[in-house]
Write a structure and sequence with these properties.
The structure holds 2 protein chains of 2 kinds. By secondary structure, chain A is of the alpha+beta class. Chain A is built from 18 helices and 21 strands. In chain A, α1 runs antiparallel to α4 and α14 packs across α16. By secondary structure, chain B is of the alpha/beta class. Chain B has one domain: TIM Barrel, CATH 3.20.20.70. Chain B has 4 helices and 10 strands, in the order ββββαββαβαβαββ. Chain B is globular. Classes of the chains: A alpha+beta, B alpha/beta. At the A-B interface, α1, α2, α5 and α6 of A face α2, α3 and α4 of B. The complex binds protoporphyrin IX containing FE and iron/sulfur cluster. Iron/sulfur cluster binds next to loops of chain A.
């Protein structure tokens, strides 16, 4: 993985000093809250319902054991003993005190971590496929490009006061696990017939109150043009994005209102002006960054058949292997998903002890690599199949062995009313209740792949628009109400879910989800036809009828 | 009133003044005009009167292209510090149009944004925010002096192997 050189180390320390000084000037009254707000946001400090929140960047979701241990240390020392992994591959601490934040940032800097640009109207943490560098279907590892983008976008002097936040995601596999089409810029890395690297470029995706799938603006952007092209997009957005209404300020609205062809012409014109300039990426520089992400030395004897023997003897292990292992490009290896969705718990939360346990497993069995997925789980990307039984035992001891990756209980939920000042309804307790309802292993496995995503208000932090079943909590006459959407998806065939009908009360929403699931089970052609495929085949009529009766 | 213009490391007297919308054009002196009024008058102003231009956030710097070689000063307005369009305006003036006169940030110009403005090519700042003024007078530096992208400030040097990393000029510019 990427390691800081002296320059990066100095950069992050200078940034901590700068923020320490900003906090001091805020406390002294030299900065008012309005002036301080963008500064603290650019360092990941939010003001929440009960307290400040600190969002720490985990660039493209990659970290090592020492970094995970440091997060555990921060959780223990400055928070209430846990942290919350987010859908943008970051971690949030919900209870730090403002005066402690400079000290936390100093701690993080010792393991090459920071909170820069995890929030605010700037270019946010760049996200990538959580199986990058490991997945069998990968064409190339997108992380070197994510790292290059991370560097270029850090404290960018021109793009620190954009109309609104700006999110970039990169994937290097045909199956998109990074949801690139719902990002402001989505990049799909690929190779042309001659083996040259380039990107399909999507612009203007986003969720929030106006969900939109991004539009393709380039089929194959050569890698050397990556920064110049992104700078061109950002400059057009910075100059022309709406600033009169924060709900219309994302680039998706600019794409929509200007028209993709006109906007694309603007971007191309800007790009022509700068493409031969200083931002053109030299090949040796790409190679140098790529070297950091070289795969670990894989062991040829990684699969000695012992995993097959162990699964034959242990049904729980067999279930774990079936759901939580992902195909790896190296023979005998697999990627292990560590579910942060134990039945009935808050999705994405991990205690300090669990973080330490994962760090230890990564160091012992996983080439010291950990990933955070946008589904709010953790991943050990490179493990020998022969080590899976031991990893499974270690995860069991830490309470992290739930065999539910991709299943109905692997729910994404935003913080909702429990933590968030903007919430109109609870989301975590709804997730917990659904998880309990479907929690038995047999039932989950029978249902198969199903993504449920829950947001506690229209801002859509829980990605409900791209859930196969999406749940949006709203408020109606002082009561929580839950609107259900069906058919959303955030992969290479992205779609925005459709509202199925009137909403359900907090008490009834879990029954409604169960009705939908049972309806699907009744109409699927084979057990292999998953919920989304069945929905796409039959449409919403049978689901409507099951929920509301025939109109 | 004390000088508001911060330039070359100190507060200095300003030879220019912003002309009010209802003030008639004087016969002589040096005034800063909003873009439309500047364009109306640039061809006919007497030789004794120097004109500079104030670009607001939505103004297109391309409109100044024919006049740039004769302009000594362009002011860019930050009506609200959170409106970042002026940063792009500045870079376009410097890079695209090669403007090398005084590029001045005016309006809601605050201490923490000045380092970013400098990197986008601003060389002068009109300061009204009292804590910012105090901090500048005290020489308080809030900059992260390592950069991860090339920009417009004169004298920045490449740093290390990375094509896009920069450090400030050896002596502050
Ligand atoms: C509790 C504090 C939080 C607040 C106040 C908050 C606020 C918001 C707001 C206002 C938006 C809409 C932005 C827009 O459309 O321009 C948004 C979107 C979003 N937030 Fe949050 N959020 C919070 C926590 C989270 C958490 C914990 C996550 C991850 C689990 C998250 C992930 C997202 C994502 C992915 C979006 C969608 C952005 C898009 O439209 O593409 N947020 N948030
Ligand atoms: S979706 Fe709404 S309730 Fe949930 S975290 Fe985002 S802003 Fe808060």
């Amino acid at each position: 993985m990427y390691r800081y050189d002296e320059f990066d180390t100095d950069f992050v320390s200078a940034r901590v000093e700068q923020f320490t000084d900003q906090v001091r000037r805020r406390l002294a009254g030299d900065l008012d809250e309005e002036q301080f707000k963008p500064l603290r946001l650019m360092n990941g400090v939010y003001l929440q319902l009960h307290a400040y929140m600190l969002r720490v960047a985990i660039p493209y979701g990659t970290l090592n054991g020492a970094q995970m241990r440091k997060l555990a240390y921060v959780a223990r020392t400055y928070d209430r003993g846990y942290g919350h992994f987010t859908t943008r591959q970051n971690i949030q601490f919900n209870w730090p005190r403002l005066k402690d934040i400079p000290a936390i940032l100093e701690e993080l800097a010792t393991v090459e971590m920071h909170a820069i640009q995890t929030s605010g109207n700037c270019i946010r943490n760049v996200t990538a496929d959580h199986f990058s560098g490991a997945a069998a279907d990968e064409i190339l590892d997108p992380r070197p490009y994510a790292e290059i983008l991370r560097q270029w976008s850090s404290l960018h002097p021109e793009f620190s006061f954009l109309p609104r936040k700006f999110k970039i995601a990169v994937t290097g596999a045909p199956h998109d696990r990074a949801a690139v089409q719902v990002h402001d810029i989505g990049l799909q890395a690929k190779r042309d017939a001659d083996g040259n690297v380039g990107f399909t470029v999507f612009v203007g995706g986003g969720l929030g109150r106006t969900p939109m799938i991004a539009r393709k603006v380039r089929d194959f952007l050569p890698e050397e043009d990556l920064l110049a092209y992104c700078e061109a997009i950002l400059r057009v957005y910075n100059r022309y994005g709406r600033r009169d209404n924060k709900y219309k300020a994302r680039i998706k609205i600019l794409v929509h209102e200007t028209g993709v062809d006109t906007l694309k012409a603007d971007i191309e014109r800007e790009f022509e002006e700068i493409r031969h300039g200083v931002l053109r990426l030299p090949q040796d520089e790409i190679d140098r960054i790529t070297d950091y992400f070289a795969p670990p030395p894989f062991d040829a004897g990684a699969d000695d058949g012992s995993l097959d023997r162990a699964t034959a003897a242990d049904p729980a292990l067999a279930a774990f292997v079936e759901r939580n292992l992902h195909a790896h490009k190296a023979p005998g290896y697999a990627s292990v998903t560590i579910s942060l969705k134990p039945i009935g718990k808050a999705p994405g939360d991990a205690t300090a002890d669990q973080m330490d346990a994962v760090a230890a497993l990564a160091e012992r069995f996983g080439h010291d690599e950990i990933r955070v997925s946008h589904e709010q789980n953790l991943v050990l990307p490179h493990v020998r199949k022969a080590d899976v039984p031991a990893i499974f035992e270690g995860l069991k001891a830490a309470g992290l062995a739930e065999a539910n990756a991709g299943l109905v209980t692997d729910i994404i939920a935003c913080p909702g009313m429990d933590f968030c000042a903007l919430a109109t309804a609870r989301s975590i307790p709804v997730a917990q209740r659904i998880s309990e309802r479907f929690g038995t292993p047999e039932r989950q496995r029978d249902i198969g792949d199903l993504k449920i995503k829950i947001s506690g208000c229209i801002n859509a932090c829980g990605h409900h628009h791209v859930g196969h079943i999406g749940i949006l909590g709203v408020e109606k006459k002082g009561e929580e109400y839950y609107q259900i959407t069906l058919g959303g998806s955030g992969d290479e065939n992205s779609s925005i879910g459709e509202i199925i009908g009137r909403g359900f009360s907090y008490d009834d929403v879990v029954d409604a989800v169960e009705t939908l699931v049972d309806t699907y089970i009744g109409l699927r052609e084979t057990p292999q036809e998953d919920f989304l495929a069945a929905y796409r085949r039959v449409g919403d009529a049978p689901f409507k009828e099951a929920l509301y009766g025939t109109a | 009133m004390a000088a508001q213009l911060y330039k070359d490391g100190g507060f200095v007297a300003d030879d220019w003044r912003h002309l009010g919308d209802d003030e008639p054009l004087p016969e002589a002196g040096a005034v800063i005009l909003p873009l439309a009024r500047f364009l109306e008058n640039v061809a006919t102003a007497p030789a004794s009167l120097k004109l500079a231009v104030l670009l607001r956030a939505a103004d297109d710097p391309d409109a100044l292209a024919p006049h740039l070689s004769r302009l000594e000063l362009i002011a860019v307005d930050f009506a609200k510090f959170s409106d970042g369009r002026g940063y792009s305006t500045a870079r376009l003036l410097c890079r695209r149009h090669g403007f090398d006169g005084e590029l001045r940030a005016v309006g809601d110009v605050l201490l923490d944004q000045i380092p970013l403005m400098r990197r986008c090519g601003f060389t002068a700042f009109e300061i009204v925010h009292a804590p910012t003024r105090r901090a500048l007078e005290a020489g308080h530096n809030v900059e992260v002096p390592l950069y991860l992208q090339p920009a417009e400030r004169a004298g920045e040097r490449p740093a290390g192997a990375r094509a896009w990393a920069r450090r400030p000029a050896a002596s502050p510019v």
